[in-house]
Amino acid sequence: MRAFRGLRRISHVPVVDFGVFTLGNQSEKQRVSKAVFDAFRDIGFVTLVNHSIPPALMDKTFSASKQFFALQREQKNQYLWTSAESNRGYLGIGEEKLQNGIPDLKETFEIGNEKEQTFPNHWPKELVDFKSTMLEYFAAADSLHLDVLRAIAIGLELDQEYFTPLCDQNHQNLRLLHYPSCKRTEIAESGQKRAGEHTDYGTLTLLAQEDVGGLQAKRRDGEWIFVPPIQNAMVINVGDCMMRWSNDILVSTPHRVIQDPRIEVESIPSRYSIAFFCNPNKSTLIECLPNCSSSENPPKYKPINAFDYLVGRLNDTI
Furthest-apart CA pair in the chain: how many Å? Predict the structure, then answer.
């Protein structure tokens, strides 16, 4: 097993210029890979600036998301989420319960691989450009996720394409999220939240935030730290599949969404975010990577099929 250095106790999520990874020389690529790997090891989160998704596309996708959530509830109900196997469609406010069965104060819309014929996407007929915008964002986010996997592979001293054939079949989910305006008193430390404490299930999550924050990540020592929005940046966090792959070297960090600490008014404004959940190919077996275990540190998890794992975790939240 590789001799990884000890953990740092950090007070904030690191911000990394990812443009250097895609455009720099090999030395610069190594430096960025180390910074990304260290962030995922220490806190499980990193904020990337100068990544490959154009700001104009991010703005256009947020605009389309707001148009969908502005539809009447009866209209949105035409596109309901039906099963964990499909994982597509609309979930209303309070229908997802991420922590202790307490309904979350949010509504969501899920989009999967458009080429998947068994479970087709639900495209709102009321919104002319919605489909083309979401498919453009889906492709751009998928490309970025493969680059981040390359950085992780380099950090783990694997071939940079190690994860590519295991994660290149677009088994991702694009999730639009809307957290409606609510009273500060509705978001309590011990009760209801905009999104309850949870980990993500796949390899990585790419999260775009607008100017209203509220995302918190839980350090390994149990302390919560906010992950503030940065214009045009992308927050990336490790999911459970990557943690299992790395034998807990990379951490799938619990996180939640509460009130933005910068906002002191009693009525908390609406919040919009866009999550891109990255998953291994459906047939991929998630088992300890070859250089992440030893006789002193044996594999902590039994091998499991990626799709079976993801479906099981999704079923637990509805």
Answer: 59
Closest of 5, 32, 8 to residue 236, by C-alpha: 32
Question: For the chain, first and last CA: distance in Å?
Answer: 38
Cα distances from 301 to residues 1, 213, 254, in angstroms, run 16, 34, 19
Q: Structure pTM?
A: 0.92
CB neighbours of residue 181 within 10 Å: 11
Determine the Cα–Cα distance for residues 257 and 183; give it in Å rounded to an integer: 14
The three-class DSSP label of residue 267 is strand
Question: Taking Cα atoms as reference points, which of 228, 223, 220 lies closest to residue 41?
Answer: 220
Pairing of strands 45-49, 89-91: unpaired
- CA 145, CA 172: separation in Å to the nearest integer? 10
Sheet harboring 224-226: ordered strands across? 195-198, 255-257, 215-218, 224-226
| Length of the chain counted residue by residue | 318
Q: How is residue 32 annotated by DSSP? A: H
CATH of domain 15-315: 2.60.120.330
CA–CA dist 151, 33 (Å, integer): 5
Distances (CA, A) of 205 to 45, 102, 172, 173, 268: 9, 23, 10, 10, 25
Cα(207)–Cα(139) distance, integer angstroms: 15
52 CB neighbour count, 10 Å cutoff: 16
Residues 131 and 86: beta-carbon distance below 8 Å: no
Cα separation, 107 vs 92, in Å, equals: 5
Q: Which tokens belong to 202?
A: 């796949």
Going by the DSSP 8-state scheme, the letter that residue 283 receives in this structure is T
Q: What are the residues facing 285 on neighbouring strands?
A: 305
The 10s digit of each residue's pLDDT in 23-60 is: 878 899 999 999 999 999 999 999 999 999 999 999 99
Q: What DSSP designation does 120 have?
A: -
Encode pLDDT of 185-214 as tens digits.
776 654 556 777 889 999 999 999 999 988
- Collapsed DSSP state (helix, strand, coil) of residue 310: helix
